[in-house]
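seq as requested:
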Amino acid sequence: MIAGVDLGITAHSFDYIGKRTRYIPRLGWIGYHPSLLPRHRGRSAIEWAIRMNDPVTGGTVFWLNAGIDRGDIAYQDWCFIDPALHIKEPKKAAAELWRETLLPMGVKLMGKAISDISAGVIIRIPQDNRFSTFEPSTDVKDVFKPDLLMLPASSSAG
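struct tokens:
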């Protein structure tokens, strides 16, 4: 085991941090997710905010736990989604929103979190699951064909 690690940090990561790794740092792990958790948990959060015509989104620094994007919230910030992004191709609009707004927001939030944690200020606010959503990755084939996803596994197309 690695000794002397105080805090693990991940940002907009698509990898799951397993239990053995999560328990190495003395204080745990924080991560940055580009949404206002608990809304839009999952890999394609920014694109889903665009696809669902959300007027507002944001970023969240949260404490990792066993669930995907389900840990306690440390810091959040928000931004409007420019209506012009809603008429662009969703992947391109999501990339633009990430690059121009959510990435810099994440850097700022992570800086604040690390500074405060270093000073002994630990914020942990449980997510309000009444407002949680989890959308699938938009890279999954047939994700936009819900009628096909609802077919029983034993049925065959023909």
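Residues 16 and 155 are 32 Å apart (CA to CA).
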